[in-house]
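Human: We require from you a standard protein entry with sequence in single-letter code and fold as tokens, and nothing else.

Assistant:
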Amino acid sequence: MSHVARPPAPSDRAMLPQHFMMILTATFLWGTGAVAGTMLGQLETLPPATVAVLRLTIGGIVLLVVTIATGQFRLGKLGYAADLRIVGNAVTIAVFEFCYFSAFYELTVSIAIFIILGTTPLLITAWTAITERRRPPNAVLIAIPVSLLGLGLLVLTSDIERISWLGVVYAVGAGVAYAVQLVINRVPVAGLEPVLLSSSSLLLAALLLLPISVLTGLALPATGLGWGLLGYSAVFASALAFLCYLIGLRTVPGTTVSIVTLAEPVVAAVGGVALLGERMSPRGVIGAALMLTAVVLVRPKKTEHRVTEEAADERSAAVEGDAAVEGDAADKGDAADERVSADESSGAEDENNSVGEDDVASDGGAVDEGDSTVDEGDAADEGDAAGDGGAAGDGGATGGGGAAGGGDTAGEDDVADELSDLPDEGESAEESAADEESAASEGGAVDAADESSDLADDAASKS
């Protein structure tokens, strides 16, 4: 019997290096998307909600084509858990996009980014400690303050005095939405592949944001470069980044993901220096170095990799053991079936032999009865013949009249006829019995005639 075990929590699973690299790739793509968004904002006058809707729609369509081409499109056939996961991701994406751009209207970009990205690791760490009732690893406890310090040095500037509490609410809301998304995706849904989850979530999120985009003014890019920047942001910074993010979440804990994605501003800062001619202050350089140090602290260790390989070997051995047990059980079952079949065949042969013996015994009994009947008939005929011979001798000795002699002669003829009518030894039992009854009746008649002749002779001698 095969066993289906419940997937362990991400914190209980060893982190795979390839999944950690997927999170790093998503972080890099999101950082380049920030640069593309900045360039698009300088080139086009598009409302933020419109940019979000267009980016999510294009990215979702690209992933949907990939899903259909690879035969993974099974929407509506995976059950309630898959549908709930898609809706949950779509809602968190829509809320994040709305709060993210709204925070930029109320706060400076630096403060908004610091609050949004800094809120997530704190929330995830607290959630993990409460739900799993365990203290976070030492590396995480060290990496969180290091990364937050680096983030502050990188993005915070001298205009920190301009604070809007509504903007803070929007920024915290974006951070909470991101944290919720990490929590709900911590355990994969069976049968729901990341590409299908990504495409359906992005398209549904775009549909949820469409009313807001219509209210704020729906527009399209007016230049080819604008469409190019929007296309890059949609395909790479949205679709591909979200796909890598979901793949990485299979084994990378949420706390680690939240710390690694804090490096997104580092990528954006380096891209700004390279593509937009921006300058990074010494404080920003120190901050970027601290954030990269935090990423190194939470990277997969070699011991974790060995544990992962050992766990994989154990799972493989367990599967092979289950298969061997099932094979032995199947062999035993086949042997039992063969024994039962052999017993049934033997029983059927015994029954057939018994029936054959009964038939032979019945036939033998019938033959014996026929032989006995024939023998009895022969004995009866011999007795009748002896009686008739005795009666004839008596008549000759007395020297009776012609009537008596005629009677004796007639008796001898009748006996001769009866002897000629006796059945052969090969006749059936029924014919022999019938002839025996007929001969007995005729013999009785002859005896009666002989007795009458004797009485007549006695009467004549007396007279």
